[in-house]
């Protein structure tokens, strides 16, 4: 028996490139101004199906109001995550107003307690 042949896709897997919220907004606006899907695909180095998916979800994309500092949202984000994040930020603000310092360890413990 000869040596095993490597899988044809091994090492050639496409890396998933997430799109920022700003990029999705730009794509929607450019398409609304008349730029074709294929041109947008080339410009943003994305497939035409990815560009079209953005148009199908444009109402949801426009309604997104991410927390400060968040630029990329994945499918894992949900209303529960958003609510949890807002509650955590509220807790942090309360602690800061009380003059308490917050460390990474304290944040991790808070996550396990509640």
List keywords for this structure.
114 residues; 6 helices; 56% helix; Arc Repressor Mutant, subunit A; mainly alpha; 0% strand; 2 domains; elongated
Write up this protein.
By secondary structure, this protein is mostly helical. The protein has two domains: 17-74, Arc Repressor Mutant, subunit A; 78-114, no CATH class. The protein contains six helices and no strands. It has helices at residues 21-32, 37-44, 48-56, 58-63, 79-97, 104-113. The longest helix is centred in the C-terminal third of the chain and has 19 residues, at 79-97. The protein is elongated.
The major pleated sheet works out as: none
**Approximate helicity band:** 55-70%
Mean pLDDT: 76
Specify the CATH architecture of the largest domain: Orthogonal Bundle
Number of helices, counting only DSSP H or I runs of 4 residues or more: 6
Taking the alpha carbons of the first and last residues, their distance comes to 58 Å
SSE succession: HHHHHH
The CATH topology label of the largest domain is Arc Repressor Mutant, subunit A
Secondary-structure blueprint of this entry?
Elements lengths: L20 H12 L4 H8 L3 H9 L1 H6 L15 H19 L6 H10 L1
Helix pairs in contact: 2-3
């Amino acid at each position: 028996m000869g040596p095993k042949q490597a899988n044809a896709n091994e090492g050639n897997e496409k890396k998933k490139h997430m799109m920022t919220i700003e990029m999705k907004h730009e794509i929607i606006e450019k398409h609304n101004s008349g730029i074709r899907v294929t041109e947008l695909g080339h410009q943003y180095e994305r497939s035409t199906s990815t560009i079209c998916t953005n148009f199908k979800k444009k109402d949801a994309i426009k309604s997104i109001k991410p927390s400060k500092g968040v630029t990329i949202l994945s499918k894992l984000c949900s209303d529960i995550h958003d609510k949890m994040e807002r509650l955590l930020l509220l807790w942090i603000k309360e602690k800061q107003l009380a003059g308490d310092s917050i460390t990474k360890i304290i944040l991790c413990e808070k996550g396990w307690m509640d």
